[in-house]
Amino acid sequence: MIRNVAGAVLALAGATAAVLSPFRAWYDGRHGRDYALDELFTGISEVRADLWWSLLLPFAFAALLTLVGLVLRSRLLVALAGLVVLGFTVFWMVRVGQYEGSLTVGGDGTGLGDGVANALGGGILLLLGALVMSGRRRKRERREGRREVLREPEEPRAYASPSGPDPRATPVSDPYGAPAGDPREASSPGPYDPYGSEPTRTFDVPGQGRDRDQGREWGKGPDQGQDPDRDQGPDQSGPGTGPR
User: Fold this and answer.
1) pLDDT, tens digit, for every residue of 71-120?
2) Fewer CB under 10 Å: which end of the chain, C or N?
3) Measured between alpha carbons, how far apart are the two ends of the chain, in Å?
4) Helix, strand, coil tally for the chain in percent (to 5)
5) Is the whole model's pTM more than 0.70, yes or no?
6) What 3-state DSSP class applies to 201?
7) Nearest alpha-carbon partner for 90 in 101, 105, 103, 77
8) Contact 42, 111 (CB under 8 A)
9) Eight-class DSSP state of 31
10) Over the stretch 84-95, which tens digit does the pLDDT of each residue have?
11) Among candidates 70, 56, 65, which has minimal Cα distance to 136?
12) CA separation (Å) from 170 to 32, 66, 198?
């Protein structure tokens, strides 16, 4: 931004000096507006030219290019305006040197005047202004700048620590065992090992202890719960003593 402002000031000063130079003496007291534009191509003459067909025309065109370049922030247009001013000034000096035979600088108003100095200085200021200006940023650079802004990571937000006890410090209860902090947890068996040894188990054999169960049902021992008829053997009276 500062470079563009400084370059614009230099360019405006140069354009102003270039436009005012035709109204100053160029050679032997003859003003620049008295030289016709076509004399630069056909040769210098003593004929006085029209105002808008004199050296004022290219310098006015250079001033217009300067204004457009400043509005568009184009360094190329401002530099082109400076080249136009310098080019026509040097071309005029070559033609006048051919017509006069030589170019002289005198302090009494003879030779080259201050109008030529104003034109040369204006062209140089225009070139300096173009160099100082930063110009417009390219579309690609602007797009990259926007992408960089979008890609910038957000700053981490600061969160206040929650009040109360730290949940990591409190014991967590085991869902499949005793609650945390239970003294029985130390005596509880370890986790089940599918490939390890299992505790010994006892099984009742079928038929064994049936009498014992019957005795318990009758409130007697295993010997008392038997049928008294079962303890008696066959009839002692002999085979002929049975009922007939």
Assistant:
1) 999 999 999 999 999 999 999 999 999 888 888 887 776 889 999 999 99
2) C
3) 146
4) 50, 5, 45
5) no
6) coil
7) 103
8) no
9) E
10) 999 999 999 999
11) 70
12) 98, 78, 35
